[in-house]
Design goal:
It comes from Pseudomonas berkeleyensis. The chain has 4 domains: about 90 residues, Uridine Diphospho-n-acetylenolpyruvylglucosamine Reductase, domain 2 (2-Layer Sandwich); about 120 residues, Uridine Diphospho-n-acetylenolpyruvylglucosamine Reductase, domain 3, CATH 3.30.465; about 110 residues, Alpha-Beta Plaits; about 90 residues, 2-Layer Sandwich (Alpha-Beta Plaits), CATH 3.30.70.2740. The longest helix is centred in the C-terminal third of the chain and has 21 residues. The chain is of the alpha+beta class and about 475 residues long.
C-alpha cells in the first residue's frame, strides 16, 4: 500500500490531475473483464510520455511499490487486475499514432492506441492490420502485445507477435530499451523484443511499438456451414484449405447460436438448425474462386459433413454472418461465464474436445456449457454459464474443482492452458500443465534480470 506522502510525490511526476484515488476510478481501472478478483488499487496514474513512465517506475523501485499496467482492460485472465494495493499505470493518454512509413508499411504507435484505431488508420492508407477480435473497439495495442493477442484471423495472419517490427520498453529498473529497431532481418543475438511480447507487463512496460501492416484483402466472403456433429468440422476445414486460402475458420455450437438469436438483432444464417457451425472466410478475388467455394460446399454436403449453408452476397451479409461468432462473448457475459481458453495442434482437436466435453458433462450436468473458438488454429473456448440462482463465489468454486482434470487433458495432448488470453492470475496455478519446471525456473530468472525488485505486475504468470 502507498502512503499519502508517496501519492503526493507520485503526483509531481505527471501532469496535474493525472493521479486518481477516488473510489469510482479505483474500481474502474483496477479490474479487467474477469470477475474472480475484487479490484483494490491504491491509485491510478496516467503518464503521457516515456519519460513520465520511467519516472513512475523509478519511484516505484524507490518505495518498493507494485505497478500494474492497464490498457483497454478487456483481458480475460486478470493480468490487468490490481487486487493488492498496487498503483495502476493506465496508458489511456499515450494513445497517438506517431509515424507512418509507406515504404516499410509500418506504423509507430503509443501503447494506448486502440486496436480499431490502428485498423482504421491502415484502411485510410489502403493497407490492413489483420489482428482482429470482438474487443477491437476497446482493447489497446500495448495490451495486445502484453498478451500476444490472436483473434479470428490467426489461420492466415498469425498472432500479434507476427506484426511487431520493433518495441521501445521501460524495464523494471526504469531503463529504456529499443528492441529490433524495426528491422526485417536482424541476426545479432537474442531477440529481446519477443520476450516482452506475451510477458503481460511482468518484465517492463511497452511505451512505443512499430506495427507492420499488410495488403488489404479484396472482396472478403464468408460462409456459415451447419454440421451434424463436431467430428465433421475437421474434414470440412481440410476440404476448404485444400482449395482456398482461408483468412478465417471459426466454429460455434448451436447453444451459442441460440444465445445470439435471443438478442434479436442478428438473423439466423438459414432455416434449419444443426448441432455445430463452421464459419469460414476467404478472398473471392474472381468468379473462379467463388465457384471453387461452392463446389467444395457441395462436396462436403455429399460426404455428409455439411447439412446446410450460406455464402455472403454483400458486405452487410458478410457482417451479419460474422456477428454470429463475434457477438458470442459479449452476449453470454450476462451469465458470468467461467472461461477456459485452451489449444492443441489442429489435428488433435476432435479427440481433445471429446475428452474435455466428457469430463465437463459428467461434472456439470446442470450447467449450460458452450463451445466456440478458432478451430483453424486449434484454439477452443470452453464457457460454463453461471445459473441465476447460484452465487458467483460458489459457481467459481465449483468450476475450479474440475480445472485440474481439464488441464490434465491439456497436458496429455501437449497443449496450452492459455492459447491467447494470457496467464494472469486465473491460470498461474496451472502453468505447470503447459510448461516444465525447468522452463518456469528460467522464466522466473528472466523476470529477475529485468525486474530485480519485483515491482512489475507481480503475482501474474507465476506467484
Amino acid at each position: 500500500m502507498t502512503t499519502p506522502a508517496q501519492i503526493e510525490e507520485l503526483k509531481t511526476l505527471v501532469e496535474p490531475g493525472k493521479v486518481l484515488t477516488d473510489a469510482d476510478s479505483l474500481e474502474t481501472y483496477g479490474k479487467d473483464w474477469t470477475k474472480q478478483y475484487a479490484p483494490a488499487p491504491s491509485a491510478i496514474v496516467f503518464p503521457k510520455t516515456t519519460e513520465q513512465v520511467q519516472a513512475i517506475v523509478r519511484w516505484a523501485n524507490q518505495h518498493k511499490i507494485a505497478l500494474v499496467p492497464s490498457g483497454g482492460r478487456t483481458g480475460l485472465s486478470a493480468a490487468a487486475v490490481a487486487a493488492n494495493g498496487e498503483v495502476v499505470v493506465s496508458f489511456d493518454y499515450m494513445n497517438r499514432i506517431v509515424e507512418f512509413n509507406e515504404y516499410d508499411r509500418t506504423v509507430v504507435c503509443q501503447p494506448g492506441v486502440v486496436t480499431k484505431q490502428l485498423q482504421l488508420f491502415a484502411e485510410e492508407k489502403g493497407l490492413y492490420y489483420p489482428v482482429d477480435f470482438a474487443s477491437s473497439g476497446s482493447s489497446q495495442i500495448g495490451g495486445n502485445i502484453g498478451t500476444n493477442a490472436g483473434g479470428i484471423k490467426v489461420i492466415r495472419y498469425g498472432m500479434t507477435r507476427n506484426w511487431v517490427a520493433g518495441l521501445k520498453v521501460v524495464t523494471g529498473t526504469g531503463e529504456l530499451l529499443e528492441l529490433n529497431r524495426d528491422l526485417i532481418k536482424n541476426a545479432t543475438g537474442y531477440d529481446l523484443r519477443q520476450l516482452f511480447i506475451g510477458a503481460e507487463g511482468t518484465l517492463g512496460f511497452v511505451v512505443e511499438a512499430t506495427m507492420r501492416l499488410e495488403r488489404a484483402p479484396k472482396n472478403l466472403t464468408a460462409m456459415v456451414l451447419g454440421t451434424p456433429d463436431f467430428d465433421s468440422i475437421m474434414p470440412v476445414l481440410h476440404a476448404f484449405q485444400g482449395k482456398l486460402d482461408l483468412t478465417a475458420f471459426e466454429f460455434f455450437s448451436d447453444r451459442c447460436l441460440e444465445k445470439i438469436l435471443g438478442r434479436g438483432d442478428v438473423p439466423a444464417p438459414f432455416e434449419s438448425r444443426t448441432p455445430f457451425y463452421a464459419l469460414l472466410e476467404f478472398e473471392a478475388l474472381n468468379e473462379d474462386v467463388a465457384n471453387e467455394a461452392l463446389a467444395t460446399f457441395e462436396h462436403c454436403v455429399e460426404q455428409g459433413w455439411v447439412l446446410d449453408g450460406v455464402m455472403s452476397q454483400s458486405q452487410q451479409q458478410l457482417e451479419n454472418l460474422w456477428k454470429l461468432r463475434e457477438y458470442i462473448s459479449e452476449t453470454i457475459s450476462h451469465w458470468t461465464p467461467y472461461k477456459n481458453d485452451i489449444s492443441v495442434t489442429v489435428g488433435q482437436v476432435p479427440a481433445f474436445l471429446k475428452d474435455i466435453d466428457d469430463i465437463v458433462s459428467a461434472n456439470y450436468p446442470d450447467f449450460d456449457v458452450l463451445w466456440y473458438g478458432h478451430i483453424g488454429d486449434g484454439n477452443l473456448h470452453l464457457n460454463i454459464l453461471k445459473p441465476e440462482a447460484l452465487a458467483k463465489e460458489d459457481f467459481f468454486a465449483k468450476c475450479a474443482v474440475v480445472n485440474k482434470w481439464v488441464f490434465e487433458i491439456v497436458e496429455k495432448y501437449n497443449g496450452s492452458i492459455s492459447a491467447e488470453h494470457g496467464v494472469g492470475m486465473t491460470k498461474r496455478d496451472y502453468l505447470q500443465y503447459s510448461r516444465s519446471a525447468a522452463e518456469i525456473a528460467y522464466m522466473k530468472a528472466i523476470k529477475a534480470v529485468f525486474d530485480p525488485n519485483g515491482i512489475m505486475n507481480p503475482g501474474k504468470i507465476f506467484a
